[in-house]
Every structure is written in structure tokens, then in C-alpha cells.
Design a protein that fits this description.
The protein is an alpha/beta fold. The protein has 18 helices and 17 strands.
Length: 505
């Protein structure tokens, strides 16, 4: 039997990255720092993917087109590297937080402190707010501290374990085991450690960022990690808009000789096969189309089983002045959650998972201008502010732009009577528009795939999640481990895999 010629492993000399989202750019920068000549191809006319910003309606009023607040950005290893952080600061990247990180509104009709719960960067300040609740507040204050304080000082090592494929040999098994005892719980069990509706709703709303039914195993994972990261770094925004993240990464890449080509869609492998390494910051569907018959059947089968989660319906507003929230802390909060009690959030998330539009969908509102006034503009003595909001809706929801506006605006109006009168202009994006704006957001989903336990373990495969089975070609989008969020680690992990395992003649 003839033997295949031996192919030694060598670092790649050239690489092509397809897609300039935060993962694609992080992969490109990681490769460039290793001495690889990198070219990034971006199908859109602007770079950034999920970290794009634009003046949508009024010149000078800046809107984030997808991601807004970034509690995980500084927790992952990419920005914790002092040299990387310093380099990106040198390219203009700066994070800023509002006076209050997040407020969860659970009772629209109760303007006092009992109708909302407040998340501060400080664990003790958050616990103190819960302590002031009636009845069981003292218990919840102690429980909040006990649940999250042990991980805050260890958020870096914890993130190193969590923001990577789940199937790995842990370097810090004790830290990971302690986190797992909470993260692997059903969120509906996890919030029962608290006794007040305020503490329960606060945690449930953070857990709902995963777009997953809150009764499923491991549905506490996202809520636990985001809470710990927020208590370590806050829920910051990028000054000047999320676009500043992409622009800083692009500047760092170019400083190492890298190139970015916009308006350059890659539709077939012959366009990129001259490079030693190809890294795809794309959905599985697009990656499969690019690779075509080269994709091994075993990988194609695994990818075909990958499931998508619920979608978002988004509205960008231009306001005159501020949102007239009934709850005072919400007027100072960078992020506001609208969803009612923990049980109401769970019902809404289950509806979305089951294909039903909730009567009261879980809705997120970001007031980035409270942390970054440069996004606003004063015209004729009037302050015009941008407002970012989206509601969780079922995959395949076909609401119109007007229906999207009505749906999201109604949720804000419940908690901020008179809000509509302050809206000067708006632009609504139902799921189809979210998908058309960014092809990685398949069906209007923004998390890169369903986040149930099966896909936390196999994202998109159990072993070698970044490998496509095609030599020298790797996948780095949020459909790979560890999933969605601006933490850069899908890209970094895939690039490191490429550096270790690319085969050259």
C-alpha cells in the first residue's frame, strides 16, 4: 500500500481571513503578531460585523448597529494582555461606563425602588440595593455577595477556562468546578436561592441574554458569567461607538503589514486557496458554501445538526432629551432590562423558543450616551440622544418595520410613560433586516446559534471546533466555542489553532 507523503507542521506564512467582525479581526491580529502576512476580505463596505456604528438618521448622532454594551470585552485573555490593551488604546480604543451599569424593571406601575433592581459594578453596592428591599432583602444581599464575590477577583483565570471549548483539560480545576456548580444549573433553579422578586428578576434578566429557555440545564451559565464579568469590569461601551473596537483592531493589523479589503465577498474557495491558512469568520452556512465539495462528510453532517435560536427585533431612536423612566436608577443606567418578574421572563423566553411571539417580550435598552456623551448632538439648543433597543422574538417572526417599532416602543412606554413624545426619529429592523445587515445573523439571530447545553458542549462540534476538516482552513465565528459576545476569543482560539496545526508542503 502506498503511503501518503509526510507533511510537516509549520507556522503559516500567509493567511486570509474572511469577515471583519470582532472575531475575524482578533484572529487576523493574532496571526499578524505571529509574523503571518494577513489579508482580510469583508463583503460589506464597512468593517466591524457586529461592532459597527453609524449616523443613521441625524448627522453626529451615533448608533451602534448590533453590539452595544461589552461586559465580556475586558474579561477575556485578548484584552487582558497588557501589550494588546496598550496597543489598542494607542489606536483610540477607550471604554466607559454609565453611573449605573444596569437596571431591571419588574413592575412598571411601581416607580419606587421596589419595582426595579439595580446592578452596580460593585458587588457590595448591588447587594446593598437588595438589602433595602422589604422582607427578605437582607438574605438576598448576603446571598448575592456569596454567589458572585468569590469569582470577581479570579475573573481572568475563570474567563480563560470558560471562554474556550468546554471539552478541555482545565488549568484551574478548582476555579472551574466552583463556577460550574452554579453555571450548569437551570436558571429557574438558580434564582431560587434568592427570596425577593427583585433579586430573582435581576439574575433572570441577565441569564436571558443567552436566548435560551430558563428551565434548561446550564441556562444559568450566561447569567453567572455576565454577572461576574460585570462586577469585575462593569458593563462598558466603546467611546465613539462600537465601531471604535473594529477600527482599533484594524489599525493594529495594518501596523503589522496586514491588509483589509472591503466590498470583497468570498463566495468560493478558489478566491482564497493561495494562502497557507484561511480563517472564516462566517456562519456555518456560508462556510459550507465557500468550501463546497471540499468539506468532509463527517463535518458537513455535524454542521447540518447545528441549531439556531430565537431572533431579535431592533429599533434605533433619536430622542429629544432622555427617556422618562419611572424608576430613578434607570435614568442613570447604561443598560435597562424590561421583562417583569423572573417567571414572566421565563415564560417569554419559552414562547420565543417555541415559535410564539410573547405578549411581553424580554427587551433590552441601551443608553450608551450616558457613558459616552460624544454620541449625542446639540442642535438649536435641543440635545438629541441615540437610543438602542431590541426585543427577543421567535425565529422566523415576519413583523414589519412598523410592527417592530410598535412592539419595542410599547415595552419602553410601559416603564417610561411619555416616551413616544420624545422620539424624533426611528429606524426599525425586524429579523429579516437584522439578517440582511449582517449575513452571520442567520434569521435575525445574533448569538451564532442556540445556546442550550448540547451546543455549549458541541459548538459546532465536540472536538476541534475550529477545524473545518479542510487542511489549513479554520472557522472562527460565534458559531464556534465559546459562542456569542464581544470577547474576541473565538477568533483568538481559532488563530492559535491555525498557528499550531497548519500544514505546509
Amino acid at each position: 500500500m502506498a503511503t501518503m507523503p509526510h507533511r510537516a507542521h509549520h507556522p503559516p506564512r500567509t493567511a486570509v481571513v474572511v469577515g471583519s467582525g470582532p472575531n475575524g479581526l482578533a484572529a487576523a491580529v493574532t496571526l499578524a503578531h505571529a509574523g503571518v502576512q494577513v489579508t482580510v476580505h469583508e463583503a460589506a463596505s464597512t468593517i466591524g460585523g457586529g461592532t459597527r456604528s453609524a449616523e443613521l438618521m441625524v448627522p453626529g448622532v451615533i448608533h451602534d448597529l448590533c453590539s452595544a454594551a461589552h461586559p465580556l470585552a475586558q474579561a477575556g485573555g485578548f484584552l487582558r494582555d497588557p501589550r494588546m490593551a496598550a496597543a489598542l488604546r494607542g489606536h483610540g480604543l477607550e471604554f466607559s461606563t454609565a453611573p449605573v451599569d444596569m437596571v431591571h424593571v419588574l413592575d412598571d406601575s411601581t416607580p419606587g425602588p421596589h419595582g426595579a433592581a439595580t446592578l452596580h459594578t460593585s458587588v457590595s453596592a448591588t447587594a446593598a440595593g437588595l438589602h433595602h428591599q422589604e422582607d427578605d432583602g437582607r438574605w438576598d444581599a448576603r446571598m448575592w455577595q456569596a454567589s458572585f464575590s468569590p469569582f470577581v477577583d479570579r475573573v481572568g483565570p475563570l474567563a480563560d477556562e470558560v471562554l474556550r471549548p468546554l471539552a478541555h483539560l482545565p488549568k484551574r480545576p478548582v476555579t472551574l468546578a466552583g463556577f460550574a456548580t452554579q453555571a450548569l444549573l437551570r436558571a429557574s433553579w438558580s434564582w431560587r436561592r434568592f427570596r425577593t422578586p427583585q433579586a430573582r428578576a435581576l439574575f433572570a434578566g441577565i441569564a436571558a441574554h443567552a436566548f435560551t429557555p430558563l428551565h434548561l440545564p446550564a441556562s444559568s451559565a450566561a447569567g453567572t458569567l455576565l454577572t461576574v464579568a460585570g462586577h469585575a469590569h462593569g458593563w462598558p461601551v466603546a467611546v465613539g461607538g462600537s465601531q471604535a473596537i473594529a477600527d482599533a483592531l484594524a489599525a493594529e493589523l495594518r501596523s503589522f503589514g496586514g491588509e483589509i479589503v472591503t466590498d470583497s465577498p468570498v463566495t468560493g474557495f478558489p478566491q482564497v486557496n493561495d494562502a497557507d491558512t484561511v480563517v472564516l469568520d462566517t456562519s456555518l452556512e456560508v462556510a459550507a458554501a465557500i468550501l463546497g465539495d471540499r468539506l468532509p462528510h463527517r463535518v458537513a453532517r455535524a454542521w447540518s445538526r447545528f441549531r439556531r435560536g430565537p431572533a431579535v427585533a431592533k429599533v434605533d431612536y433619536v430622542l429629544e432629551g432622555d427617556v422618562p423612566w419611572s424608576h430613578q436608577d434607570a435614568r442613570r443606567a447604561g443598560t435597562v432590562h424590561l421583562g417583569g418578574t423572573a417567571e414572566q421572563i421565563a415564560d417569554a423566553e419559552q414562547d420565543c423558543w417555541s415559535g410564539r411571539l410573547p405578549e411581553r417580550p424580554f427587551t433590552l435598552v441601551c443608553q450608551q450616551y450616558l457613558a459616552d456623551p460624544s454620541r449625542s448632538r446639540v442642535i438649536d439648543g435641543r440635545t438629541l440622544n441615540p437610543l438602542w433597543a431590541y426585543a427577543h422574538v421567535p425565529a422566523g417572526w415576519t413583523g414589519s418595520e412598523q410592527e417592530t417599532f410598535n412592539l419595542v416602543t410599547a415595552q419602553i412606554e410601559r416603564a417610561a410613560p411619555g416616551f413616544r413624545e420624545r422620539v424624533l426619529d426611528w429606524r426599525a429592523s425586524p429579523p429579516a433586516a437584522v439578517a440582511s445587515h449582517n449575513v452571520n445573523n442567520v434569521g435575525g439571530e445574533i448569538s451564532g446559534g442556540a445556546n442550550d447545553l448540547a451546543q455549549l458542549i458541541a459548538r459546532p462540534r465536540v472536538l476541534q471546533p475550529y477545524d473545518t476538516g479542510v487542511p489549513g482552513v479554520f472557522l472562527c465565528s460565534s458559531s464556534t466555542a465559546p459562542g456569542g459576545g464581544v470577547h474576541f476569543m473565538c477568533g483568538v482560539n481559532a488563530a492559535q489553532r491555525a498557528l499550531r496545526h497548519t500544514q505546509l508542503p
